[in-house]
Amino acid sequence: MRLRNVKGSREHIAANSYVLKNGENNKGRWKEIFQDGKPIHIEIGMGKGKFLMEMARRHQDIHYIGIEKYSSVLVRALEKMEEEPLDNLHFLRMDAEYIAQYFEKGEIEQIYLNFSDPWPKDRHAKRRLTSRQFLARYQEILKEKGNIVFKTDNRGLFDFSLEEVKESGWILDLCTFDLHHSEYLEGNIMTEYEERFVKEGKPICKMIIHHE
Ligand code: SAM
Questions:
Q1: Ligand 1 atom at minimum distance from 192 CA
Q2: pTM for this model (two decimals)
Q3: Are residues 139 and 104 in contact, defined by beta-carbon separation less than 8 angstroms?
Q4: Is 70 exposed, middle or buried (0-12, 13-18, 19+ CB in 10 A)?
Q5: Integer distance in angstroms from the first to the last C-alpha of the chain?
């Protein structure tokens, strides 16, 4: 994601009703806040939010929360929401490193990780969103047998993730190294990055995992 400082993005986010505020104070209270008992799914590193907007359109019986670290990126998703408001889509501006401070065990039913930053240097492995450190954080918030759905074009990151999954005792429910030429393509919703990589002819890897 190309980052540049978008003037006024912090103020825009502070004033926007789709952005959930004081997230840490709501740990364990999300169902109460949404009031309708619908399950909650999150995307970590959602970028401009194209994928989650389509998911929210198709599945009105689910609340989606898009998590994004940078205001300058999140503000782009908010602009799209102004054109087409969706009641079941919400946003949190935060670093996913602190996710277990925002959600209680069992509050989240599904986590999407789409085209996460690869952090190619070995010394940065802990920052990868599929490292064992992050997997442990996800385990702290997912409901029993809740899924993580991960897609990437980066084969190095995917192979690393498979190792971390195995080492951390997660169970692999689906694994493909070429989603767009596989039996699993039906119903696939493309993210912004995915559209770009597919046009370039790059194979897309996908896994679905859960923990007992
Ligand atoms: N998911 C989108 C897609 O597939 O089009 C965007 C992918 S982009 C490569 C990765 C996004 O993750 C960026 O917007 C980046 O700011 C965000 N990100 C990276 N690390 C993060 C973290 N620790 N917490 C929250 N967001 C993060």
A1: 5
A2: 0.95
A3: no
A4: middle
A5: 34
**CB 168 within 8 Å of CB 132:** yes
Structure tokens at 26: 């709501």
Q: Which atom of ligand 1 lies closest to the CA of 3?
A: 16
Sign (positive/negative) of CA torsion 186, 192, 196, 199? positive
Say which DSSP state 202 is in: -
Q: Which of 61, 117, 159, 178 is catalytic?
A: 117
Tokens 């990868």 found at = 128
Tokens of 38: 């619908």
- Residue 22's pLDDT is 78
| CA pair distance 42, 54, nearest whole angstrom | 13
Which residues, judged by CB distance below 6 Å to any ligand atom, belong to the binding site of ligand 1? 1, 44-47, 67-70, 73, 95-97, 114-117, 191-194
What stretches in the chain show pLDDT beneath 70?
1-7
pLDDT in the model for residue 116: 98
| C-alpha to C-alpha distance for 117 and 175, rounded to whole angstroms | 20
For ligand 1, atom 6, which residue shows the shortest CA distance?
Answer: 47
Nearest CA to ligand 1 atom 15: 45
Task: Report which protein residue has its CA nearest ligand 1's atom 12.
Answer: 45
Instruction: Confirm whether 36 is a catalytic residue.
Output: no
Q: Which amino acid is at 196?
A: R
